[in-house]
Specification:
223 residues; alpha+beta; 8-stranded antiparallel β-sheet; globular
Length: 223
């Protein structure tokens, strides 16, 4: 399973992984977020942390991750990746049929988010009276590279070939940008993400993929 997970990770961040080439780093596998595995466990999901090659306690890992978000313009190590392999299956009426173990993770999320998007969220949430254009202008000033007018640029760097090598041939059927959600008093409504649908060729199955617009990185995906 480890080589497969690493291959999947490389397909999502080819540039990030190339920066790690030739460098020492550590991988932590666990069944949750509480620390490394100490005994055999089920394959429901796998939590992987890519970190510098030094030992850290779970508390130190969380502290280092929080500090990296505040101090860096791009995500620094550790990067936390979660892969889910088991899903609940329902029939057409909504009755639970059981669970299905997939050879490919049906859901993925990345806890490493850039400093700029946090700054953009904070700024936009502070001005609920703004319309879309001031929201976008604020995000651009903070370094957003792939706004709604940069769809072609985003898809040009999107790792469709790498994902297709794992999930089978994929075809992008939709790519939309969401600036904000519903603006309500005292709510966090800033979004700033691309939502991409990729259909498996000769199949009805699709992948729903969320991409952040500052560096064009995939941060979540589900089937």
């Amino acid at each position: 399973m480890v080589p497969w997970i690493l291959r999947l990770t490389r397909s999502r961040w080819p540039r990030y992984c190339s920066e790690l080439k030739g460098k020492e780093f550590s991988l932590q596998f666990s069944g949750g977020t509480t620390g490394p595995l100490s005994r055999p466990t089920g394959g429901n999901f796998l939590f992987l942390s890519v970190d510098k090659a030094i030992w850290r306690s779970p508390e130190q890992i969380r502290e280092h991750s929080d500090r990296a978000l505040k101090d860096a313009s791009e995500p620094e190590l550790p990067v936390h990746l979660q892969f889910d392999f088991v899903r609940t299956v329902f029939d057409k009426t909504g009755n639970r049929l059981g669970t299905e173990v997939t050879c490919q993770p049906w859901e993925f999320s990345n806890a490493g988010v850039s400093k700029q998007i946090h700054e953009a969220w904070d700024l936009i949430n502070s001005y609920p009276e703004w319309t879309d254009e001031p929201d976008l202008e604020a995000a651009r000033k903070l370094g957003m590279r792939f706004g709604p007018d940069k769809r072609a640029d985003l898809l040009r760097i999107f790792p469709l070939k790498g994902l297709s090598s794992i999930y089978g041939p994929l075809q992008i059927t939709e790519a939309s940008f969401r600036i904000t959600g519903l603006k309500e008093p005292e709510s966090s409504f800033a979004d700033l993400h691309w939502y991409i649908t990729a259909k498996r060729v000769a199949s009805q199955k699709t992948l729903q993929i969320m991409v952040e617009p500052f560096h064009g990185r995939i941060i979540a995906m589900s089937e």
